[in-house]
Amino acid sequence: MKIDEQLLKSYSAEIRTYKEKEAIFHEGDSPSFYYQIIEGIVKVNNYNEEGKEFIHNILGKGQSFGDAHLFIDKKYCVNAYALKPLTVIVLPRKNFINLIKENPHVSLEINACLSYRLYFKMKMMHDIVSQNPATRIIGLFDYLKSYTDCEDQHSFNIKLTRQQIADLTGLRVETIIRTIKKMEKDNLVKIQERKICY
Fold it and tell me: Where does the Cyclic nucleotide-binding domain lie (predicted)?
């Protein structure tokens, strides 16, 4: 979901920058802003009791994050970090709610976006319990591809490292490498200059 930047600015949105690995918000913080990425990559994660990281999402240009928390009176249950130098447009929560009330078409688009995310999150959770590593990986790739207009086979460039794919699917890096090689043989993906195209 991308809200027009001029519309955001008309409701007093500001541009902020973050350095690589800098935190944008932490688990337990109160949601105060709508965030939309202008440039860079954001990782949304949390950690279990043993300190093992669970990555919920990796987002890029034009995507928003943390917005679902703005509609409920709950603190963040995730962290957000800049994976690369990041530029975002931020809008205070109160202004965001006013924007939605005064622009019903934006409200409908946000509802559709949140529903779409929930659909693919549920589908990904279904795939992640599979014992078949390829099913888990394809579930993740379908989820990531759903945020784009890419429809053709092998047209979507997976901008994740093998380690990040492992973290997102709960598999070991060695399993990811082996399975992706098999997926390439089965023509499910193409590898071009070590980049995965799905």
Answer: 16-100
